[in-house]
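Collaborator request, handled under Task 6.
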Amino acid sequence: MTVTASKLRENVYQILDSVLETGEAVEVVRKGRVLRIVADTPSSRLARLKKRDCIRGSPDDLVEIDWSKEWIPQV
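Structure tokens returned to the collaborator:
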């Protein structure tokens, strides 16, 4: 949808509500240039996590660990 700045001023709340409901961007023509009003899509919480390495060293070294000294059988 393309509107002029005057039309946006007249119907600013209806136009903004329309962008939020439909997700369709609105282009506003002002002094020969085009401005876009676009609804932001929030990213998921998982996407915002920082990538971290949890294993220090080679993962293959974990396979070779002998846990038999630490294991206590239940009686």
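The cover message to the collaborator said: "The first strand starts at residue 2 and ends at 4. The beta strands are 2-4, 26-30, 33-37. Please let us know whether this matches your experimental observations."
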